[in-house]
Design goal:
It contains 45 helices and no strands. The chain has 767 residues and is an all-alpha fold. The chain has a domain at 651-767: Tetratricopeptide repeat domain (Serine Threonine Protein Phosphatase 5, Tetratricopeptide repeat, Alpha Horseshoe). The radius of gyration is 37 Å and the shape is elongated.
């Protein structure tokens, strides 16, 4: 029976059908099996397009639905491995085989990772497990071959590789593996033949194409190598890593123009790939073309203002050029949008260190290290920050952590070498310099650090060999010529030394140490006019060198021309406001002319721009102390110790002031002990600690320390005066009389002369 419906009835029926379809669709979408498969398929699609981060998100979504979804774990492992994230790749493979032990591909992937990590027994156990279940698994046979090779048994490895081919003659990867072993065995003809066979079986496989290109490059068959490398790019034109490999081939072959053109093309052809469009700038940096690199990254930043990697790379270049304001602004923009980005935080730390704000850098980088304890760069820069605050013990600890986390990273080793020089730790210097040479045999500084260690060991011949090696690897490195000049001076060969200093200035007109070496030779010969002309001539060649004007100022003072000295030192500070030697010398000029307030004002200005430099605080405090302004002097000594609690000069002077003006004796003793520990061979520190013990009533200890001070400086009346007072307290009047009279004999106008005369006249036993 055929029934018709009215308009309203049809609408009701259609509505019911629509509702039912929604119900059915929703039911399907709520089915976990359907949903996880959908995420897996979407992840696979992204992975095929090379969009690995996007693929990882989809696989992770599938795993959220079913944490035991072995296939999703395995595919997630693959995208991690594609991105060279070995740690997370390994973790996902382990989860895969925990859920699905018979996933033989996952087991072999794990074996390969264990092999790469040098864990050969663990790798072999997994391979043997696969072979036991699948005796004809050709891939397992290949990994077994790799294990034999890693054990040093190349003949057995070759036999295993041949067996893998017999198991599956059409498997391209087996021929590639055999070829690699044949290369190791120096059978290059057979290796070439097998790589060609691998390519014929799978023309789209990158491995054999790249390996054949590398083989040709090894044999200096550049045209054939270039052809294979270009073929690799044609196979996967969207992979920027291939462009890098080919560019490196061109660079090693002396064809830098071709490398530049290749990377320019990559920037154009892969304009939306961040890994590609920054390659040209990285190339310029690697070639030392700083101006081109700066322009390139400035352009990239304008085109991709939200690309954090481009912004941080650009900021890093600006830091290297000492353009701190520009770098800081750029970095602040990055942190505004990405406050927790570790690379941007590390850059901010670098900027703070360059600005002399070491404590601020410590406060910033400390949490970065806490959140990323395995980040070697974070430890390295935190070490620099601690060093800027003069906390060298903590700095060394951070640098050693960085070295442990990344043994191939040379920067923390260099920092340790510099610290060794500062600490006069020759063992650390020899160790770190040897490590630099091992890591970077073509870098000159490792040899120069090692030469200093040899000099400290009195091995001048060994030091000279190291220096000449530094010159061999870097003929235009001025530091090597300077050190060789210093070595010749130590050998009393001044003319030879001068020649090396001249060579240093020839390759680097701004080599201040070389100019200082020449000046010292002239001063030894008492030829101040020649030294003056030498410095003035060099300033004409390099007019913006603050250290040169410092040298000029020092020479003008030797020439007793304070006006010209002031002019030169002021120019040194105009060029570099952080030139503390120039600032302190200029202050001395003002003091010598009775212009004490000008010196004080200069130190206060220096504190505003160098708030972490303890030397400025101590110099200002010492000047105020000499003017009998002891209370503000104490304040500045305290500020210096807040910055660096173990700074011996500040501790020594503050202890003395406290003893002279009724301060806490126990605190003064603690400060004096700190000073004595930091300045064990300085007579003044012995006198201060002795004076502290005197005030505490520990006279025997005081006598010993005053005697030690006099051994170091017998012409200081204060030391004799203090020793005389201590002998008096011990009732040793004869010795007291001798020491008090010695003080008057050294300086009849000594500040305590009246007190000494009174003491000598009071008791006839002392006359």
């Amino acid at each position: 029976m055929f029934t018709t419906m009215g308009k309203f009835g049809k609408l009701k029926l259609l509505g019911w059908i629509f509702a039912a379809s929604i119900f059915l669709t929703a039911g399907c979408s709520r089915d976990p099996q359907v949903r996880k498969k959908k995420f897996l398929d979407k992840g696979n699609a992204y992975a095929q397009q090379g969009k690995y981060p996007e693929a990882a998100i989809e696989y992770a979504n599938a795993i959220k639905i079913d944490p035991r979804y072995a296939q999703a774990h395995y595919q997630l492992a693959q995208v991690f491995l594609k991105q060279t994230d070995w740690t997370h790749g390994y973790q996902e493979l382990m989860r895969t085989v925990d859920i699905e032990p018979a996933n033989w591909d996952a087991q072999l992937d794990l074996a390969s990772l264990l092999l790469a990590a040098g864990k050969l027994p663990d790798a072999r156990d997994r391979v043997q497990g696969v072979i036991k279940s699948q005796p004809q698994n050709a891939r397992a046979q290949v990994v077994l071959s790799d294990l034999d090779a890693a054990d040093g048994n190349v003949p057995k490895a070759l036999d295993e590789a041949q067996r893998a081919i017999q198991m599956d003659p059409q498997r391209s990867a087996s021929y590639t593996n055999l070829a690699m072993l044949q290369q190791r065995n120096n059978d290059l003809a057979s290796a070439e033949s097998n790589l060609q066979k691998a390519i014929s079986l799978d023309p789209k496989s990158l491995g054999p194409v790249l390996s054949l290109g590398a083989l040709y490059a090894r044999q200096k068959r550049a045209p054939e190598a270039e052809k294979e490398f270009q073929a690799a790019i044609a196979i996967d034109p969207k992979d920027p890593r291939l462009r890098v490999q080919v560019a490196n081939f061109y660079i090693s072959n002396g064809e830098k123009d071709k490398a530049e053109k290749l990377l320019q093309d990559a920037k154009t052809e892969l304009k939306d790939n961040p890994d590609a469009y920054s390659l040209l700038g990285d190339f310029y940096l690697s070639q030392g073309q700083v101006d081109k690199a700066t322009a390139e990254f400035a352009s990239l930043h304008a085109q991709h203002p939200k690309d954090v990697r481009v912004s941080t790379s650009y900021a890093q270049i600006l830091i290297q050029q000492n353009r701190m304001d520009d770098a800081s602004k750029l970095n602040d923009d990055v942190l505004k949008n990405n406050p927790n980005d570790p690379s941007a935080q590390l850059l901010r730390g670098q900027i703070l260190i360059r600005q002399g704000k070491g404590q601020d850098a410590v406060n910033l980088l400390g949490p970065v290290v806490k959140n990323a304890p395995d980040n070697a760069f974070a430890h390295y820069y935190l070490g620099l920050a601690y060093a800027d605050t003069s906390n060298f013990g903590q700095a060394e600890s951070e640098w050693r952590d960085a070295e442990r986390l990344n043994p191939q990273m040379p920067d923390p080793v260099r920092a340790l070498a510099s610290l060794a020089l500062l600490k006069n730790d020759n063992g650390l210097l020899a160790e770190s310099s040897s490590q630099i040479i091992k890591l970077q045999p073509l870098a000159p500084d490792g040899y120069l650090f090692h030469a200093r260690a040899q000099i400290n060991n009195k091995d001048l011949a060994g030091a000279e060999a190291d220096i000449k090696k530094a010159i061999e690897v870097a003929p235009r490195n001025s530091a090597a010529y300077v050190l060789l000049g210093a070595l010749r001076l130590a050998q009393k060969r001044a003319d030879d030394a001068a020649n090396f200093f001249i060579q240093a200035l020839a390759v680097n007109p701004n080599a201040a140490d070389a100019l200082a070496g020449l000046v010292n030779i002239d001063l030894e010969r008492k030829d101040i006019p020649k030294a003056l002309k030498l410095v003035q001539d060099q300033i004409a060649l390099a007019p913006n060198n603050s250290q040169f004007y410092l040298l000029l100022g020092q020479l003008q003072l030797r020439n007793q021309d304070s006006a010209k000295a002031e002019q030169a030192l002021s120019k040194a500070l105009d060029l570099d406001k952080n030139n503390m030697s120039a600032l302190m010398l200029l202050a001395n000029v003002h003091v010598s002319r009775g212009e004490v307030q000008q010196a004080i004002d200069g130190y206060k200005r220096a504190i505003q721009t160098n708030s972490r430099d303890v030397r400025v605080y101590v110099s200002l405090a010492s000047l105020l102390q000499a003017q009998n302004q002891w209370q503000p002097a104490e304040d500045y000594y305290q500020q210096a110790l807040q910055i660096q609690p173990d700074y011996a000069p500040a501790a020594n002077n503050l202890a003395y002031l406290m003893l002279e003006h009724g301060g806490n004796i126990n605190v003064a003793i603690s400060l004096a002990q700190t000073a004595r520990k930091g300045l064990p061979n300085v007579p003044n520190s012995a006198d201060t600690l002795g004076w502290a013990y005197y005030h505490q009533g520990v006279y025997p200890a005081a006598v010993d320390l005053f005697q030690e001070a006099i051994k170091g400086d017998a012409k200081n009346p204060t030391y004799h005066y203090h020793l005389g007072l201590a002998y008096q307290k011990e009732n040793n009047y004869a010795m007291a009389k001798k020491e008090l009279n010695d003080a008057l004999q050294i300086n009849p106008n000594y500040g305590q002369a009246d007190e000494i005369r009174k003491l000598l006249s009071e008791d006839p036993q002392r006359n």
